Amino acid sequence: MAQSYCDLAREHPLHQAYHDQEYGFPLATDAALFERLALEINQAGLSWQTILKKKENFQRAFEGFDLDRVASYGPQEEERLLSDAGIIRNRLKVRAVIENARRLVVLREQHGSFANWLTLHHPLNKEQWVKLFKKNFVFTGGEIVNEFLMSTGYLPGAHQDSCPIYHQILTLNPPWSQQ
């Protein structure tokens, strides 16, 4: 049986901090949700440790993940991002983050916020979520959608039932616990 993230994170400073303070905790603001989606997109094909090491650089490069700012990025900002060694310099991923910001601005106009849009569709199973994300966003395959939703509290499974963080998250009433 493979080790769980709860087991693997225990002795690693980057993973332990993420595990104990972020992973599976409900997020509500557009910037926080957009950031997590962008980080999950950038993790594709790479280790989560690589992303955690670059997290502050992503926050700086994408201006705090402000939807309106990122949605307004054009070719000059794209080139700036592609020349930034502090982030993942993959053209498809950079373009996906920018395009998804544009799509999130539209969803926000229609539903008030990204969180409201997620809540409107909750609860769905993983397959339904993946289909919905593929319809509304780019570069969002099954693993990206699953990790995004688990890491933000919309799908269960971020922590083992025996993990103290699991019980801490339950007190926050994450969406998956309301099914």
TrEMBL record:
GO MF term (any one): DNA-3-methyladenine glycosylase activity
Keywords: Metal-binding, Zinc
Species whose genome carries this gene: Ktedonobacter racemifer DSM 44963
A Pfam family of this chain: Adenine_glyco
InterPro entries named in the record: Adenine_glyco, DNA-3mA_glycosylase, DNA_glycosylase
GO BP: base-excision repair
Protein name: Methyladenine glycosylase
Zinc is among the record's keywords: yes
Record-annotated membrane-spanning stretches: none
Highest rank taxon of the organism: Bacteria
Binding-site list for Zn(2+): C6, H19
Keyword Protein biosynthesis attached: no
